[in-house]
Amino acid sequence: MSERIAVFGDRESIYGFAALGLDTYFYELGADNTAVFKKLCQSRNYSIIYITEAAAAELDKEIEKYRSEPSPAIILIPGVSGNTGEGMSAVRKSVEKAVGSDIFNE
To answer: Which one, 37, 40, 68, 89, has the greatest CB density within 10 A?
Structure first.
């Protein structure tokens, strides 16, 4: 399994990740982002794919197909437009599935 990490999202949100050695893929308005995302997941080149919450909102159905797969781990991150809460919601669902209860219940 690969130890490489990819980041997928709008240019303004993710361009800095390239300086850390992560592979960046830009989400393009009006483009076929589903095809790019599928290619990332199916390539088996990445153990982790970070995706901005805005890009994930468009690709929700595609992301769901990979949730039960051990690799790649798909992790939502906020973009420059702010935090929508979707990333934390995804973490909450994953932990609840693993543990059997909502340990974040406030």
So the answer is: 37
Q: Is residue 38 part of a domain?
A: yes
CATH number of the domain to which 72 belongs:
3.40.50.10580
Residue 52 lies in a domain: yes
- Residue 13 corresponds to which tokens in the numbers above? 């949100």
Q: Report yes or no on 106 lying in a domain.
A: no
Q: What DSSP character marks residue 48?
A: E
* Residues 55, 57, 61, 65, Cα dihedral to 10°: 60
Per-residue pLDDT in tens (0 to 9) along the chain, 106 residues: 568 999 999 999 999 999 999 999 998 877 889 999 999 999 889 999 999 999 998 898 999 888 888 889 899 998 887 666 665 566 666 655 556 666 666 5
